[in-house]
Amino acid sequence: MNKSKFSSEHFYLLVIITLLASVSLACGQLSFGIETPVAPTATSDNNSQVQVSPSPLPQSSETPPPSETPPPSETPPPSPFWSVHTDSFTGISFAAPCFWEVQLTLEDPLITTGGYMSIQNIPGDYVMQYPLAFPRGTGVYEVGGIKIEFVIINPSAEGYPAGISPLDYVTAQSESASLSTLVGTEEIEINGQAGLLVTSESNFGVGQYYLFKVSNELLLLVNYFPEDSFNQLDMQGVLNSISFSPDNPVVIPSHTPAAPLPGLAAACIPEYAEPSDPPQPRNFNEDQTTECGLHSFTSLEYLSDKVISSLQNRDIGTLVYYGYINEPFDIGYWLSEGVSSTPLEVGTMLANQFLPPDPGMLTFTTNRAEFPPLFDMPPESIFGPDYNVAEVYYSEGWGSKGQGAALLYFMQDSCGGYYWHGMVIAGDSHFDQ
After folding, report:
1. Which residues of 54-80 are buried (b: 16+ CB within 10 A; e: fewer)?
2. Cβ–Cβ < 8 Å for 411, 386
3. Residue 169: which of 211, 125, 117, 110 has the closest Cα?
4. Residue of 348, 307, 350 whose CA lies nearest to 10
5. Which long-range contacts (CB under 8 A, 24 or more apart) does 180-184 make?
6. pLDDT tens-digit profile of 233-292?
7. Are the CB atoms for 344 and 10 separated by under 8 Å?
8. What's phi and psi for 115, nearest 5 deg?
9. In sequence order, which residues have a C-beta less than 8 Å from that of residue 315 and are 6 or more positions away?
10. Among 3.10.450, 1.25.40, 3.40.1720, 3.40.1000, what is the CATH number of 300-425?
């Protein structure tokens, strides 16, 4: 079995993030949930530690009488445990905890179709470092994982005029052959910079993201994960620190960042210099996995029921992120060649190509009397002799018109466990037609 790996790249292509409803409203505008402190002067390059020089507060020349309200307390100084990062291509700057991983754009988005940046407290090999704690490559958010994604959009590369506003852009996107439908927008503001909270709906469900105008040529889409981390201090610190111009200083938070994930240390913060206890072994799906891990289930009935119910409910997220789609997953096209794909690619094909408008009408059977003739080929022979076929389901109702059919293959592995290996799809017609 191939090992699963933790990856977030899929989240920014199909926007499926649901923000908390507790975001505060003021004067008809939505703003992030913590107060923005007065910004200190800060300088840094992409990887340097913060250098800060707090601006002195003005001093009063007179002592107020006892009956008057005392002056406001001094703004807390910025924490030395945050680093300021500036992307050289876009000029976007932000603060992040000193031990978080930061990826800036690799190419100039003005000469490409766009760019991508990420900020996270999840080391790249964290999930693989503790495979027993994350048997499906998932669950890292449940132990405190946080990630923010910046998607740089070059509207000109998509045929839109320079200077297009975020609202005009999302409106035009919703009217084109987009993978998502615009539900609504709300005006927001961070660090004095206006933007939009966009709510959209796709085959993966309803999600939200932030959209800003960075310059006359570029837009910035911001996602964050998980959805319930919005009010976490470090998440708020990063979001409220963002600056699109050198004239607008990055706001460096005053608090010490939260500790690194279980089992990790942060050398740049003395109190986190020693690693904490590692994450404890965990198992999803009611301890249904075998020693082969990742995509191997002890019960064929449990696995097939999960797959079928997820398909009938268009619950692609469950199939992709909880190991029900094997990696690699083989898709055979009837009377044509096939492909081997990742779970994310398979989920996208299921949502956008294979499933009918009403997947609840899909039928599934293991009764061979109801199978198509398949030119007198046994169904087990389609994937060759190298696999131990445990069960084959024949399913009708597939395709854009609900007139197609498919065969779903569940195999048995060396641990005696079961996995969904692949499928053969007949498109918009039945087999042998």
Report:
1. beeeeeeeeeeeeeeeeeeeeeeebbe
2. no
3. 211
4. 348
5. 180/14, 180/15, 180/207
6. 999 999 999 999 999 999 999 999 999 999 999 999 999 999 999 987 655 555 677 778
7. yes
8. -155, 180
9. 309
10. 3.10.450
Distance spanning both ends of the chain, measured CA to CA: 35
Cα gap 219→113, rounded to integer Å: 12
Where on the phi/psi map is residue 432: left (φ > 0), alpha (ψ -120 to 50), or beta? Answer: left
CB-based contact 410:420 (threshold 8 Å): yes
Q: Which DSSP letter does residue 310 get? A: H
DSSP assignment letter at 154: -
Extended strands (E) in 161-267? 180-190, 193-202, 205-213, 219-225
The tokens for 73 are: 């307390």
Structure tokens at 152: 């740089």
Q: What is the dihedral of CA 58, 62, 66, 67, to 10 degrees?
A: -80
Q: Where are the domains of the chain?
A: 9-50+75-272, 300-425
Q: Which two tokens stand for residue 14?
A: 């199909």
Helices (H), 193-265: 233-241
**Whole-angstrom distance, CA of residue 78 vs CA of residue 249:** 13
* Contact of 238 with 94, CB cutoff 8 Å: yes
Asked whether the beta carbons of 303 and 411 are under 8 A apart, the reply is no
pLDDT in tens, 102-117: 999 999 999 988 999 9
Nearest residue to 254 (alpha-carbon basis) of 74, 58, 399 = 74
Strand partners, 410: 391, 420
The Cα 288–Cα 281 span in angstroms is: 14
